[in-house]
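Comment on this:
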Amino acid sequence: EVQLVESGGGLVQAGGSLRLSCAASGFTFDDYAIGWIRQAPGKEREGVSCINNSDGNTYYADSVKGRFTISSDNAKKTVYLRIDSLKPEDTAVYYCAAHEYCGYIHEYTYWGQGTQVSVSS
């Protein structure tokens, strides 16, 4: 069974850091791209970062570039998203999702259940 399980979210004060994890199973992890997508209350989902596990290429939304860092451990089948200098506007449910390559949100094949990130001002 394909599974993507996010963890690492929580409540943190503005300026703090978190590292989110996405543990994958049930598919050939190193052949897929893993993206992080967030959805803030009342807003549409926003793709914030993606990594192509096949070549290691990474992508970031302009809104998070410089603060978010995505990485992948193929042996552990886990993708990480480190978030630095957290801002209240980063508050959202963060999902990881898998596709053959980094692309549009609607193209992702598998989705996790999400992990809540809440940033207080």
Notes: The chain is about 0% helix and 50% strand. The two ends are 40 Å apart (CA to CA).
